[in-house]
Amino acid sequence: GPSGGPFSRHGIGRGRLPFSVVSGEDLAAFERIVPGRVITDPEVLEASNVDWLRMVRGSSVLLLRPRTTEEVSHILRHCHERNLAVNPQGGNTGMVGGSVPVFDEVILSTALMNQVISFHDMSDGPVCPCGCGAPSEAQASVQTLPAQRPQWPQWVLADGMVLNCLSTLRKDNTGYDLKQLFIGSEGTLGVITAVSILCPPKPRAVSVAFLGSLCWKMLGEIVSFLVCSLLWGNQSRLWGQSPFYVLIETSGSRAGHDAEKLNDFLEQVLSSGLVTDGTVATDHLKVKALWALRERISEALSRDGYVYKYDLSLPTERLYDLVTDLRVRLGPRAKHVVGYGHLGDGNLHLNVTSEAFSPSVLGTLEPYVYEWTAEQRGSVSAEHGLGFKKRGVLGYSKPPEALRLMQQLKALLDPKGILNPYKTLPAQA
Amino acid sequence: GPSGGPFSRHGIGRGRLPFSVVSGEDLAAFERIVPGRVITDPEVLEASNVDWLRMVRGSSVLLLRPRTTEEVSHILRHCHERNLAVNPQGGNTGMVGGSVPVFDEVILSTALMNQVISFHDMSDGPVCPCGCGAPSEAQASVQTLPAQRPQWPQWVLADGMVLNCLSTLRKDNTGYDLKQLFIGSEGTLGVITAVSILCPPKPRAVSVAFLGSLCWKMLGEIVSFLVCSLLWGNQSRLWGQSPFYVLIETSGSRAGHDAEKLNDFLEQVLSSGLVTDGTVATDHLKVKALWALRERISEALSRDGYVYKYDLSLPTERLYDLVTDLRVRLGPRAKHVVGYGHLGDGNLHLNVTSEAFSPSVLGTLEPYVYEWTAEQRGSVSAEHGLGFKKRGVLGYSKPPEALRLMQQLKALLDPKGILNPYKTLPAQA
Ligand SMILES: Cc1cc2nc3c(=O)[nH]c(=O)nc-3n(C[C@H](O)[C@H](O)[C@H](O)COP(=O)(O)OP(=O)(O)OC[C@H]3O[C@@H](n4cnc5c(N)ncnc54)[C@H](O)[C@@H]3O)c2cc1C
Ligand SMILES: Cc1cc2nc3c(=O)[nH]c(=O)nc-3n(C[C@H](O)[C@H](O)[C@H](O)COP(=O)(O)OP(=O)(O)OC[C@H]3O[C@@H](n4cnc5c(N)ncnc54)[C@H](O)[C@@H]3O)c2cc1C
């Protein structure tokens, strides 16, 4: 189990809950369900016990790799009967320690459920519905699309019951929209085994502008999609001298039309003095290189030392105040206080780095950051969920009545509480 | 209560459930909660007892008109304690008899909850979040926008408990997405008292093309938004001679760019012979006049006689087969068999008219239409919900496990079953 250092701060309440321990008979049963895909080798298990950020570590002795929904169903039915806790795991790239066991939960990995079930391309049409076997991969591709939610998932409840509503219909209004409960429930209500997602056709023309600016507020008001990346560390040399950088992507069906609109916009912001320097790319490789500047931030931060990560939704006009405020409060105890995110969405990824984990830095950050966010009626987790690390802070963004209802739903859908038992919802008093 | 004629066919199972009957003491209590807004006048009640299509009629003796969430909460707390059934009602324009009482349910109308709470306009920005007091009005405006779901509703549970998650955040991933359960639950799980909806800015340029065509299939493949309106009755004279008509709306920020794209498209479909005649409008009034052709279909159908209405989702390539099939099956017993809808969404509004209600026509239509739809893995209600008229057909589109889970959710959230008791879910055996 977790102990000492950074772990202790996530306070797991009363410790391991009284679930069963995996027995030899369990192993034999699983071997019958997923022959050859019952992993107990500690070296192979290591990668599944530790999260991407290498900040949360569990001690599971068992990793199962089902290929089909039926196998997932049989695994869960067995775990339910035997009162074994289960940790669903996808790509294990989550940011809040939700994807790894806290103690010895059985790891149920969807890594082998990666085949695309069907792919319907309407060529020049509006959408191509596709059923994807791997929620993690599907989710990854979805991140780059605007406001995409799966149309339909198929999922398995804690007791092994399969709910198969998979379809490629665009519209359906029959009864309650059950899938919505499972999307974003972080493996605490069921295991999603397939999803169908509407994908807009690949735009024919893409332009990216990477611009330096002195003022982030006004930029946020004029561009619709905005990644506001703050200068920090080594990347500053790479990027230039502006205190703020913004990445703007336009996409459409006609390169000429898009270029015209983008040029108009650039003229406007340059002549107003809002933008001081920048570059524009339409070439595929250069577009990729500019996006890499944003995508590498998280990795670069992990190399800077211990990272305190917050993923907040805030009113756009107050977005950056928290960054400047914290720089003053933390002083030299922080190596960097970095803010970036989707400005158009009011989403701030706040990252603070220090040489090593420091209780004093943590004490300055928490609960201050959460209280500040709650005062602005913001969200303490805009994108990343709550998982293990943030389960205690749900109350900053949701009223007690909502928490109670969530606990009731959990009790209804997973009466023994075997699915991701130490995640998402606060430990019950 | 409902009796005879078209009503009997909706089979309300075991009849009125054993709820209390409104007493003089109840009226006095309501008068304290919503003074002056307790309506018992039968003439005023008439409009709330009958649905827009004038096909479902209840016999409620009490209409309440709260103005605030608090008042709704107090009303529900009282009804819950007293075991009084409640029928939430918005604009009463629903198509499935969900908005009117079946027996003597207390009508809780949101008609006076019509003030906009806040409106945040980001001028040139991507969205203007707005909190709207009237779900019905908000919903109405939302219909014209692509795939808009409320960001946040506020709602009151059956026992009067208020869930206030209202906010204008674009992103929030803390805990279960509770609001999704209530959206589309047709007043059976709670009463929504406020919503916040992201509205894209009004497009600066709008063009509408209204085109006649011999072939609907190919059109469906090349245009992204398509209303396929079939020639019928009087409107045929108005419209022209083509068997199919399609309405295409483009909207963007630059009239010049949009016109260029639309002209290219028109050239293409005209030269291919796909489109035979048509007209294009950019002028506001002419745009409105063209849209009116679509919007008046439902009203015109009601004047044609008794209307059997179906709102189906189907695979696009089979969409129209059902219409031609039914014309043959029904022969002269039907005045018109009309299909229209959003072809891009695979949504077919199927309408059959006959001189008067005829059990023989109904027998030919049902369960045939539902079975045909289920075979295509379609949805038996794409947009309109199930309400009272379609509650029995949920099983054609959702598996038994899903139905059971819906019943469990209903029991959890409304244990006495006082909210819209005869709607959405099938009568329990
Ligand atoms: C470099 C980098 C960049 C990132 N950028 C972004 C970003 O821009 N936006 C963003 O939102 N996130 C971002 N993330 C976070 C993370 O990648 C995403 O949230 C990702 O979608 C998680 O998917 P996964 O398959 O790895 O899930 P995991 O990490 O494996 O699991 C996440 C949670 O889902 C549960 N889960 C996994 N599979 C299932 C299943 N089949 N059924 C039910 N529950 C399941 C797990 O138990 C866990 O609670 C980034 C991560 C990295 C490493
Ligand atoms: C001419 C015309 C055209 C239409 N076109 C379309 C269309 O294109 N697409 C489409 O989807 N629909 C269409 N409709 C159907 C209907 O107008 C819409 O579904 C409309 O949004 C219903 O809103 P309402 O406020 O009138 O709800 P109502 O009819 O009053 O109620 C509908 C259901 O919601 C429940 N309800 C109402 N208020 C609340 C509340 N506050 N909380 C909880 N439950 C509540 C009711 O109990 C009922 O079950 C059309 C209707 C007409 C008359």
From TrEMBL, chains A, B:
Its annotated function is as follows: Catalyzes the oxidation of D-2-hydroxyglutarate (D-2-HG) to alpha-ketoglutarate. Also catalyzes the oxidation of other D-2-hydroxyacids, such as D-malate (D-MAL) and D-lactate (D-LAC). Exhibits high activities towards D-2-HG and D-MAL but a very weak activity towards D-LAC.
Q: What is this protein called?
A: D-2-hydroxyglutarate dehydrogenase, mitochondrial
Give the top-level enzyme category: oxidoreductase
The lineage is:
Eukaryota, Metazoa, Chordata, Craniata, Vertebrata
**EC number(s) on file:** 1.1.99.39
The UniProt GO MF terms for this protein read: (R)-2-hydroxyglutarate dehydrogenase activity; FAD binding; zinc ion binding
Q: Which Pfam families match?
A: FAD-oxidase_C, FAD_binding_4
Q: Which gene is transcribed and translated to give this protein?
A: D2HGDH
Location of the FAD-binding PCMH-type domain = 56-290
Q: Which cofactor does it need?
A: FAD
Q: Which reaction does it catalyse?
A: (R)-malate + A = oxaloacetate + AH2
